[in-house]
Every structure is written in C-alpha cells, then in structure tokens.
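hey m, so remember when u said the tokens were messed up on ur end? i reran from scratch. heres the input so u can diff it against urs
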Amino acid sequence: MNQIFIIFKKELKDILRDRRTLLAMMVFPLLLVPSILSVSTSMQASQTEKAMNKDLNVAVVDNGNGKDFTNALRYATGVKIVEGVAEKDLKALVKGDSLDAAIVISPSFDKTVKAGRSGMIEYYFNSTDAREIKQRIETSLDFYKNGVLTDRLDSLGLDKSIIEPIQVIEKDVYTQKESLGKLVGGFMPYIFVLFCLMGAMYPTIDLFTGEKERGTIETILVSPASRLQILLGKMGVVVVAGVVSGLMAIVGMYLALQFNPDAPEFFVNMINSVLKPTSVALILAMLIPLTTFFAGAMIPLAVYAKSFKEAQSMIQPALIIVILPLVIGMMPGIELNIGTAFIPILNVALASKEIIAGTIDYGLLTIVFLSLIVIAGVGVAISIRQFGQESNILRA
C-alpha cells in the first residue's frame, strides 16, 4: 500500500505541472460551464424581451367580413395590421419573416357568426419564431372569441358555466420542489459526467502513453513497486482528476446561476434548495466508481497506443458513447427502476435526478452503487491485464 501511495503522489505532482491536464480538470469546467449557461440564459432573456416588445406585422385578408375582429386585433398592444396583401402570398411572406403572422377571414364569417355557428379563420404563423409572438396573437384571438361567446350567452340569459360542465381541480402528486428538482436533475448529469470523463482523459493519456513517448516508463518499471502497484497508483490519479473535474462542473454551474442576472429567480432558488451537501456528497460518491470505470476503459487504450496523438484518436470517441445514455436519461418517462439501475452511466443520470428532486429510493441507489462498483472492477481487471503485457508497455 505504501508503494501505491508513493506512485500516486509522484504522478499527482507530475500532472499538476501539466498545463493541459489542469485546463481539462479544473479551468474548463469551472469557466466553461458558467460561460455556456450565462450566454444561453442571456440570449434566451434577450430573445424573450425582443419578442414581447416587438411591433408585430399581421396581415389580414378580411374578404369584407370580421370588422369587429380586425378592430380587436388592431387595438392590441404592439400589433400593426397590414392590408392589401394577396392571399396567395401570405405563406411565403410569413415564412420569410416579412410578416409575423397572417389571418384570412372566410367570406361567410359574419353570416355564420350571426347565425350562432362557428366562423372560419385561417391563421398563418411561423413555428420557428419565439413562442411569445404566437402567444401574443393568440391572446387577441381568444379575446375576440370570448367576447362573442359572452354576447351569445347573455342574449340567451345563460351563465358561462353552462358550457363548462366539468370543473377540473389539478393536484400534482409532486411538490414544486420535486418537479423542478427532476427538471434540474435531468440536465445536471449531462454536464458533470462529461466533464468527469474529460478530466480523466488527459491524465490517462499522459500517465501511460506520455510515459512511453518520453521514455520514462522503463525507469518507473525498474522501481521496487510491482506492476500492479504502479498501475493502481496511476489509476488513482486518473480517478481523482475525473472526480475533481466533475465537482468543478457542479461548482461552475452553481456560480453561473448565482451571479447571472438573467437567470430566473425561481430557478436560482431551486438550485440553492436542491444542491444540499447531502445531495452533492451522494453524487460525488457515484462519480468515484464511475470514473474508475472510465479509467479502466481508457487505460488499456492508452497503454496500447504508440503516441499521444494515437491515444487521443482512440479515446475521444468515448465522448459519443457516454452522451447517448445521458440523453436517454433526460427523456420523459425514463425513470430509475430495477432495470435501469444496472445500466452504466444511465443509472448515474437517473439516480442524480432522483437525488436532486429528493425522491431517491435508497434501495435502488444501493443497486446503482453496486453495479458501478462491479463495472469499475471489470475495468480495473482489463487494465491490469493490458498493463501486464510487456509488448503493450514497450510498444513503440
């Protein structure tokens, strides 16, 4: 054990001197995550404000009908009625953003509405625009529709409740904290698991392939430490680097939301309430066996590679493999159960979601830990086998 610790200290000092490792392990997650979140929330806030304050150009083809409707739309705040546009050109103009929306009133609209039936209106909109634009126009549509409905019911001496025979009282089985916690927990693993892998990647390549390139691997092999002790010492450094990188990603996200003026207040409050020391501790505890698994998968490739560049080209595709279960974990309806608890990476994503929401089943969490420990053990076993082959270590 003393020999392993000596190797661990020596390799840890070496990677802390390496600029690329420090960037991947600490600087990138601590600065990149806040930058991404700040830019995205700022852009979202800017787009929302622009959509809400923008003067909307809405073309109306009335066919001599719907005067009251057109007036209701005309008096809506920030809506400019564009007349004289040919009906055949509406679709192209809305699609090309020359118009924000277009409305075609049927020739029989007034007659139909007066008869107490439903008048026909065609509404052209661009679904790629900000949803606030569509909401603003639909508010005017609903205002006119409710006005006509109220007039009809008043003329008949009826209460509006006659057309609403059922009153639905919604009661969410989840609290607001639990619901938002699941929302937050859906994308958090996407961030810290990826940075966990990236933080472990460069130390893996440097401590194994880099040693071969520098010609220093032979020196450490003739030390009193056994081949297994050398491997475990190096692997310990890789695991520490990955876990620290994942932790820095969590810290970076927390800081981004705390000091970003564009972040929604309810969202910041939710982050403060769900990121408790217990939650963070449980997530970090899962990252240790997960990073050990990552190390066990990457070390054999790094041992086999002849050069730093070759090792990078062999290991970097792992990012794609890791992203897939993380994306699946964000899909609605995918929950932590006895089946998903055994699937690597996906189980971490789902368990993190439950931990943050405060709804974790500790029985399933135990299964997640056990499954992670098993796959970590498999990864270590594969690494031991690869590192034990002389042809791999001295491969030039």
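this time it looks ok to me. The mean pLDDT is 79. if urs says something different then somethings off w ur setup not the seq
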